[in-house]
């Protein structure tokens, strides 16, 4: 299980370090990076299944 998510220079996110627990809820106003955080998690999951090169190619 992941315990910390760190994202740097991905889409609208410059630097985010977020501790993760059993259940995590992300809230915030429009345009604050919630979707970018979700996409970063999807990219990580895709890279673990299919390899980093394929995941990055799909992400664009």
From TrEMBL:
Residues 1-48 form the Endonuclease GajA/Old nuclease/RecF-like AAA domain. Signal peptide: none annotated. SUPFAM superfamilies: P-loop containing nucleoside triphosphate hydrolases. InterPro entries: AAA_GajA/Old/RecF-like, P-loop_NTPase. This is DUF2813 domain-containing protein. It comes from Kribbella antibiotica.
